[in-house]
Amino acid sequence: MDIQRDDQNLNQILLEETFYVLTKKNCVFKVRLTRQGLHLIKESELNFKEQVIPIRDIVGCRCLRSKKQSKRCVCQSITRSTSLEVVEETSGDLDVNDTSAYLYIYAYLFQDTKAASKKRERTIITLRFRSFDKFEDNNREAQRWRTIIKKLIKGDIVTNSTILEFSSSQKHRESRKLLVLCNPKSGSGRAKELFQDKVAPVLEEAEIPFDMYLTKHSNYAREFVRSNNLFQWTGIITVGGDGIFYEVLNGLFERSDWSEVIKSIPVGVIPGGSGNGLARSIAHYYGEPYLPSPTLPAALAIVRNHYAPMDLVRIETTTQIIFSFLSVGWGLLSDIDIESEKLRILGGQRFTIWSLARLIGLRSYGGKLWYLPAEVPLVDPKENLIFSNNIGSNTDLPTEVNLETKGRARVDSWYSANSRRSAYFSATGSSYQSTAEEAVADGGVNSSPQEKPRMYGPASQIPGLMAPVPSDWKCISGRFVLVHACYQSHLGGDLLFAPDATLNDGRIWLLIVQAGASRSQLLHFLLGLSTGAHATSKSFEGLVQLIPVNAFRIEPDMSEEGYMTVDGELVDYGPIQAEVFPSLCRVMVP
Ligand SMILES: Nc1ncnc2c1ncn2[C@@H]1O[C@H](COP(=O)(O)OP(=O)(O)OP(=O)(O)O)[C@@H](O)[C@H]1O
């Protein structure tokens, strides 16, 4: 019953208007706005067709006016079609003869024709309000639609009384401002361009301002978040790989006000590095198409104002405390990650080549592994694995839809609104801080790098690293090819490590491969990591264990040398322990 009421609520008509397509005789569109989305209902003499643009696919909308046409050159063909150019209503360049108000609605439609070809397509719907003689009246109508659409995108409650409230001249004002920290050296060194070309345009469409800082050196982002007043921003975005996110996260825990910050300021990630495990995992949990445009689900996550709690893992080594969001590694996978650094120039292929090299010169490491098995799952992972809100848009919309209200005689030859080709308007108040400029907003970033900052964060619930392990922990001792823990589904863009993991399942997924496996078995295991087959296929039984745990400790044989990594970053080789803190921070999700 509740569901039915919800459905009715979703389909309640909030706004409705009739528009016309003047190029097609007698083609009338009824456009309705409901909590579910924008309904384009085509009514012609012969048929009736409804297409819905779900609210969750809409990133933003803006009201514009048509631009004054530049004077015709005498040599210009009079038959050349003039495309509509639009400007802000405050522009001195507007066409005063056209009193229409144009509402541009930007959407990224989810298309799920075949499971293999899920994708999002950018579409612009243009509604031309022209029923009144005066621009002010047309604009009031357009602004009313814009305000309500923006409220729905943000997830605000829209009632009949709020609609009335916004039918006056009240305009939507954006209250968000983001801090963007970009590592220009990550991946192939194109993270800044990636942000400017792929993400900034979506933020502009959503009219979300941001301040962007480029990191100048390793640990820059960490120092930045540790020492600046973060409350001037409503969210922090990292652009780069998992390394820059790791810096930001640990910088947050070096603040005495960490608890308030992680509760009130969500973090988001734009994948631009060579290791993008977190971004890939978030797209996976929410059923968002990741390839060929990995930045799009991340950009949508930022504009949608949706946050989800994420587990963090507190790591203790003999020298430091770390807060980790992705992984702890010892053995084969860490060796490949760290030692292939010297082949960086090869891009992603470095991992494949070094995997083969490491299989030929296979190593194992002696030591002890203790773990505390996870109790009954906090949530059923199967229920939670893919949480997709994607309503297939069921649309066959072109990339532009231009509709107008009936009204005054046409004053221009209309069509071709902003499209993929369009230049973007600058978002109000956004700033780019170049590498040449001082990035220090509050003057604190470069202060005393020698001083080791204190790590705050929640207190450990398990005995310290040097204390005996509790009796209910299990122990495996011997030689290991690898022990790798991960708390996300994906360890990297194409490594499906823990197929059942979710953002906040309260679990660490511990992968154990003991010595004794043949090279060919290990080759199959490494190949299986790309699809998750290592965890699901029976052929790996006895070779590979994937155990959900709440905490673990590794004590390597210190007479041997090796690598240990946390979130892909090298840490001191030696005893290490980890415990999960469920839902400790909030991340932006699509
Ligand atoms: N301006 C900079 N110059 C050099 N190194 C930087 C700079 N900014 C950040 N770093 C360091 O680069 C490291 C890797 O960053 P990131 O994860 O963003 O990219 P990546 O390509 O995925 O890296 P990797 O493949 O090494 O994990 C981080 O540990 C960070 O400390």
Automatic annotation (TrEMBL):
Q: Name one GO molecular function term.
A: sphingosine kinase activity
Q: What is its main location?
A: membrane
Going by the UniProt record, its keywords in alphabetical order are:
ATP-binding, Kinase, Membrane, Nucleotide-binding, Transferase
Q: Which SUPFAM superfamilies match?
A: NAD kinase/diacylglycerol kinase-like (SSF111331)
Q: Where in the cell is it found?
A: Endomembrane system
EC number(s) for this protein? 2.7.1.91
- InterPro entries xrefs: ATP-NAD_kinase_N, Diacylglycerol_kinase_cat_dom, Lipid_Phosphate_FormReg, NAD/diacylglycerol_kinase_sf, YegS/DAGK_C
User: What biological process terms from GO does the record include?
Assistant: regulation of apoptotic process; sphingosine biosynthetic process
The DAGKc domain extends over 173-319
Q: What is this protein called?
A: sphingosine kinase
